[in-house]
Structure formats: structure tokens, C-alpha cells
Amino acid sequence: MWGLPLFPPQASTLAPQVDALFFFLVGVSVFFSLLIAGLIVYFAIKYHRRSEDEVTEAVHEPVALELTWTVVPLGLAMVMYVWGASVFFTAVRPPRDALDVYVVGKQWMWKFQHTDGQREINDLHVPLGRSVRLTMTSEDVIHSFFVPAFRVKQDVLPGRYTTTWFNATKAGTYHLFCAEYCGTVHSGMIGHVIVMEPTEYESWLGTGAIGGSLASAGEKLFQDLGCSTCHTGQANARGPNLQGLFGRSVTLEGGSSLVADESYIRESVLEPRAKIVAGYLPIMPTYQGLVTEEQLVTLVAYLKSLARPSS
Amino acid sequence: MTSPAVTLAPVPQEHYLNVDYGVRSWLLTTDHKRVGLLYLIGITGAFFLGGFFAVLIRLELLTPQGDLVQAETYNKLFTMHGVIMVFFFLIPSIPAVLGNFMLPLMIGARDVAFPRLNLLSWYLYMAGAIFVSTVVVTGGVDTGWTFYTPYSTMSSTSHVIPTALGIFIVGFSSILTGLNFIVTIHRMRAPGLTWFRLPLFVWSLYATSLIQVLGTPVLSIVILLLGVERLLHVGIFDPALGGDPVLFQHLFWFYSHPAVYIMILPGMGVISELVTCFARKNIFGYRFVAFSSLGIAVLGFLVWGHHMFVAGQSVYAAMVFSLLSYLVAIPSAIKVFNWTATLHRGSISYQTPMLYVFGFIGLFTIGGLTGLFLACIGLDIHVTDTYFVVAHFHYIMVGGMVMAYLGGIHYWWPKITGRLYPEGISKLAALTIFLGFNLTFFPQFILGYLGMPRRYHVYPDEFQVLNVMSTAGASILGIGYLLPMIYLVWSLWYGEVAGPNPWRATGLEWQTPSPPPRDNFTTTPIVTTGPYEYSRPRGEHG
Q1: B329 interfacial to chain A (CB closer than 8 Å)
Q2: CB–CB of A88 and B377 under 8 A?
Q3: How many separate domains does chain A show?
Q4: Which of A181, B111, B202, B276 makes an SS bond possible with B198, Cβ 3.0 to 4.6 Å?
């Protein structure tokens, strides 16, 4: 009980960047706190009222002084702002070559799906030294994926995907917390991120997958749901060709365009009429209620696999 | 204003307390001073009820296991602690108690502009309080004071609607008080009391009132929408019904961030009164302090998104909200520097209200500086939704606001009651509160950076030592808060008779007897100077 921790483990590439920023702010805060406290104590002693009838003399109030204590804090604040924004950009932009893991939160557990097909609940195994990108959604209320050792936190929302990423730098087991209040067992919606040496991770991968890769599960679902009857891949098909779709720019009816990402695929399955690809009719039925979030993830993984040139 | 007179006048024959008697004379009063006291009673009740929940929370967190209360109960405890403290204590406290009592006195008026509306505000406050008290008794609510959707609309089975209704009603109390104060400050100032002769407490009440009038309707609307979705299943916030949960957060914080300034601005105003009186010195940089209140009120409306940096808003929105949050910090810094500079070459007394000033400046500085950590988007990712946030806003709300409130209560107590509080024990209480506060909340900064999330009933073992420290501090803090409750009541009968102006203060409220007569002043004061003419002009020797 008396092991008193004062600082969290630093186990991701982001952590030292966040900590450097933290220590800069701590430094500024300590300086100003001591300055103010020191002045108050000094004045309180030096100018202590000596007699009940004491009268003070008005002092000159130089505008330069007011300007100084406006401009100096403003300058420091702008340094914090720019530095903070640059760390933030690193934190929200996953590298392109990151390993994909899909996360579904629900009251009160974390479900993880790896692209090779491994599924985990509350424990997430990841390799050391490799960027891991999490695509996350919730089945019910808002949750938040928080790994203090990585200095990573991202709310997990129902009805949409949010993403975060990390690159672990130290093997070990780290706390995973739900950081957004989500009901009765909120404090039980916890788990661990287990960072493994790459070789260990490879052997762990070999033990888990039963039903084949996520993409192959998605392919099977794609057939079962009858998606392939319209999305045949032929030029005259009723649905757009999905081969090579992921990551490509799509022109919509009305002339606007977007890049096909996970959220777009998710939305197109659940609300097909929200965005119609130019040249196609709004005839696709919704699959709302027919597929779970975990199944949707397999469809996303399947379409992503179609984007790879080798397939 | 006229020079402070050292008169030891006896308690006046007739004053607002003895002008008439009986329950009816209080419940139907239109005297702003009596309304202020009615609020004092309501708010004190809310403070100790909210505090009682805080004690239970801290006791539960003494051990990592959830062994004192069940998870559901724990969630209700922190929700009701937050709801009661925010909506029924912090927001109304200084404006409705000290503002109500002092504003007309400080501007030389007989009453507020709309005395009956003022009484109606109190009834609305009590009506809202009754709704929430009923919820407390009948099983509680477990959404957190933030009512985040879709948990509050589709998942929680607790009393969300009656609580929301209570907050909806108390919102109108806040709007009416704000409206009343704005009109009072515009229309009721004594002859010669120009805007730049107004006490800074009045400036801060003016800024606060603007927020109350402009911001609170948005809270009312978001509560209505929440009720519509929960009761009628109209999809507004719940994605399962086609809504957007982040929309709720935008609307909620559009009010609730400015509400933070409703809570702290009047406290800053009180500090400006106290620091000048007990340093016997003109305020340093009057206009900077006055305008910084307005600056905070305006900028405060533009920073709500900083509660949502990890909530799924766009990267560019986050950048804009971060920048604006840094800007809103500057007026607060200006105030702190000016208060500190006011002490320079002052005649500083260590009477209790001044101890609260020292406490306020120190704790508010820490609270404000740690706000910079949360405004910093790269850093906020890690610390948001952890105990770091809990510590930060308690430094502002409890370390800042409650210190200012207690300082103000002690300062104006002789005016309100005609009696002085006992100086020795009140200094001890102030010191106890300061120490207890820091022991309670400083460890929470460390806990937060370590990663302990908020609203956790059960937590990992390694966080226990810091939690034990926090709970120990809370017990000291609790005793500190009980002391004024006891000795202030005691002083009503046994306190030394105060006389009109025990502090030799310059404000208009001190130019009339204590307690003041029903109509405040026998003759309307005429103002010829600024509010803090404590110092003789430079170069004059006397």
C-alpha cells in the first residue's frame, strides 16, 4: 500500500512528447504560483498594519506594468497553444502503415477484433514498436478508450467510428480504462493492454484465430447478406464496384466527392441513401438491425482487403 | 464617498429585521435584504446536503474496493453532489445571497428594480430545490451532473426527468435574478455614481447577470430536448433514433462553460472589495479589473468546445477552442496581478476576510494555471476525464469561489446582522479550510496524471495512498466548514455589536446603520468619488 506512485509509466512514442509539454506547463505554473505567493507573503509582512489609524498613500499605476502582465502571460499561453496543437496533431494522425484493430465498446466491456481473426474481451495484445490504429464504436452509450501509459484517450461513440493510435515502446501490461461515465459498472469497464516483443506477438497470433481472418469473415457475410447480387463488380451492376474502393475518392450524386473510409462504408451499409454514388439509383435497402457492430467491422475489413492491389 | 466615520452607534431602533415579525412578513417580503437571507438559508442547506454526499464519496474512496456503498449508489452520490453543488449552491450563492443583500446598498438604492420578481426568483429556486430533494429521497439520479446522452435518455433507469425539471425551474430563478440586477445597475444608481465609480463587486455582478440572462435559456432548451427524447423517443441525441450525442454536449457546454464564470466572477468581485478594505488601499488598475470581468463574460461564451477535445469533434474545431480558451485565461491573470499589486504599500490587516483573500488568490492561481493544462489540446487528451480535471475545477470552485463566498459572508456579516463574528475562532476556521482543502485536492492532480478516471467507484490498488490523503483532507475540510456555521449562528446573540462601519470601509453600504433600515438609507447618498478612496493622494502628507 505504501508504494506511492507519482508518475505514470511512459510506454508509447507519444508519452514522452506529452510529458515534455506537461513539464513545461508545470514549470510555468510553479514559477507563477511562487511569484504570486511570494509577493503576497512579502507584502503581507512588510506592509502589515501597524496602527488602527494608519493611512496609505496612493501609488502610481503605470500602464506599462499592466501591459507587461498582459503580454507576457499571453506570449507564454501562445507557446503552450502552438506546442499543444503540434502534439495533438501527432496524437490524432495515425501513420499509414499502422496495424488495424477494431474496438467495440458496450456496457461494460471492451471487445477487440484483430485483422487476422483473433477476438479478445478486455485484454488487447499488441506488438512492441509497431503503430496500432484503433477503429472504435459503441453498441450503446458513450465510452472512452484510455490507456494512461500511452497518454492516449478517445471517446467511443455509438453510431459512428472514432479512431486513435499508439506505438508501444515498452513491453508490459498496462491499464485500460473507460474514461467516459457509462452507467453502473463504469469503473468495471477496464482491461489491460499487453505489449509483447514482436516474436512473442507472432506466436500469440498463431494461437488465437479460429474462424479465419476478419476479411474472410466479412467476405462470407457479404455473400450471406446478398450484397454480391448487386455489387457484382460488373460495369452494368445495380451497385457500384467495390473492388479497390477503399481509400479512393468517390464522386457522389450532386457532384461532391469524398474519400471512402471506414465511416463511409459503415454509413453506406446502415443508411445507404445518405450518400449516393454518381450514376447509381437510391435502391439499396438499409441493413440497420440486420448486422451487429462486430459484423460491420468484418465487412469493413473485407472491403479494405479488396483495396489491396494483390487481390 | 464620505470619509469613514468611527462611530460606535448602538444597534438602531428600527431596522429591516425588526420592522415586522412573523412567517408571513418573511415569505411575502419584497425587501431585497430579507430575500437575500431567505436565499442564505436555502443555499446553506444545499451546501451541507451536497457536502454530505461529498463525505460519502470520499469515504467510499478510502479503499480501492467498492465496499461502503454499491456502484449504483456511488454513481448517484457523485451525481447528486454535482447537481446540488452546481445548480443549487455555486450558481446562486454569491449573486443571490450577497448580491441581493448588497447590490442596492452598494449603489445607494432602496431596493432592486423589481422587488416582487426578486421574491419570485427565490420561490422558483425553492421549487427547483424541492424537485431535486424529492429525487434524493425517492432514489436519486445517476447520470452525472452533465446528463450526457444517450446514457441519460436511453440507458439510465433513475429519476432523470424530475431532476431535469428541478434544474429547468431553478434556471428561471437565475434568469430573473440576472435580469433584475442588470436593470437595477442601469437604473437605480445613486446620483453621482457613474459606471467608473461603481464598486468592482457591482461590475462583476453585472457581467455575471449578462451570462445568466443570455446563457441559461440554452440550458433550459437542452433540458427540454432531453426530456422530449427520454419521454417521447424523438431522436435528437440518440444515434439509435437518428440523433447525435455530441450535439447534446455542444448545447450543454454552451451554457455550462459560461456557468463556470457565473460561479467565479462574483467571487472575483468580492475579492476586489475585500483586498482594498483590508489593505486600506485603492484597487490597483480599476479599469483593468472592471473590464476583465466583461472580457471573461464575453470570451466565456466561445470556449465550450474545450470540454470535448476527445469527444469526436473535428481537429480544427479543437484548435480554435484551444486558442480561445487561452485567451479567456488572460483577464483572470490580469485580475490576480492587480490584486497582488494592490497589497503593495498597503496597510494590511490579517482579519478573517483578508485570510480568505490570501487563500482565494493562492488557490485560484493554482486552479487557473492548471486550466492551462486542460486548454492545451495535446495534453488534455491524457488528463481530461481524470482526477486532474476534478482537482482543477475544485480549486476554482471550492478554493476560489467558496473562499470568496466565506470571505464575503464574514466581511458583510456585521452589516447583515449588526453583530461581529468572533475573530479568533474564525481565523482558525479559515486556516483549517485552507489546509484541509489542499490536502483534499492537491493529491488529485497527481492521481489524475497517473490516469485515475473520474467517477470510478472501484480503482486500482496503487492509487490508494493518494486517495487516503484526499479523504483525510476532506475530513479536515468538513470540520472547517462546520465551524463558521456554528460561530456565525452564535454571534447572532452573543457577537459584539458591530456599529455601522467596523472595518472603516468606504463603500456606500457602510454609510448606513447595521443592520440597515428597511429602506436602506434615510437620505439618498450623493457620490462624488470612486469606490475605494482609502489612500490619500500621492505626495500629500498627513
Answers
A1: yes
A2: yes
A3: 2
A4: B202
Contact check, Cβ <8 Å, B361/A22: no
What is the pLDDT at residue B5? 44
The domains of chain B, with CATH numbers, are 31-511 (1.20.210.10)
Mark yes or no for CB contact B312/A157 under 8 Å.
yes
ipTM of the complex: 0.93
User: Please, what is the angle between helix B245-279 and helix B200-232, to 10°?
Assistant: 160
DSSP secondary structure letter of residue B477: H
Query: Of B169, B189, B273, whose CA–CA distance to B532 is shortest?
Result: B273
Q: Residue B361 and residue A36: Cβ atoms within 8 Å?
A: yes
Residue B397 contacts by C-beta under 8 Å, 6 or more apart in sequence? Answer: B85, B90, B260, B263, B264
Average pLDDT over every residue of A37-41: 97
Q: Any idea which residue has 467558496 for its cell?
A: B402
Give the confidence band of A307 by pLDDT, cuts at 50, 70, 90: confident
Q: Cβ A70–B536 below 8 Å, yes or no? A: no
Q: Is the pLDDT of residue B291 over 90?
A: yes
- Cell numbers 456606500: residue: B508
Model confidence at B541, pLDDT cuts 50, 70, 90, reads low
Single-letter amino acid code for the residue at B66: G
Query: Which residues are within 8 A (CB) of A165 and not within 5 positions of it... i.e. 6 or more apart?
Result: A94, A95, A98, A131, A132, A133, A134, A152
Q: Which domain holds residue A238?
A: 214-305
Q: Is the CB of B533 inside 8 Å of chain A's CB atoms?
A: no
Least confident range of A23-32, A40-49, A200-209, B391-400: A200-209
Please tell me which of the candidates B156, B315, B319 has its beta carbon nearest to residue A183: B156
Neighboring chain A residues of B366 at a CB cutoff of 8 Å: 29, 33
Does B490 touch chain A if contact means CB atoms closer than 8 Å?
A: no
Establish if A206 belongs to a structural domain.
Answer: yes
Residue A21 is nearest to which of B66, B378, B461, comparing CB atoms? B378
Q: Is residue A311 part of a domain?
A: no
Average pLDDT for chain B: 94
B422 in reach of chain A (CB within 8 A): no
Q: Provide the CATH number for the domain around residue A284.
A: 1.10.760.10
Residues comprising chain B, all counted: 542
User: Per mean pLDDT, which range of A14-23, A249-258, B413-422, B450-459 is the poorest?
Assistant: A249-258
Q: What is the CATH number of the domain that holds A123?
A: 2.60.40.420
> Does the pLDDT at position B252 exceed 90?
yes
Window A:80-109, CB contacts with B under 8 Å: 80-81, 83-92, 107
Test the A interface: residue of B247, B328, B348 with most A CBs within 10 Å = B348
Same domain, A199 and A76: yes
- 3-state SS, residue A194: strand
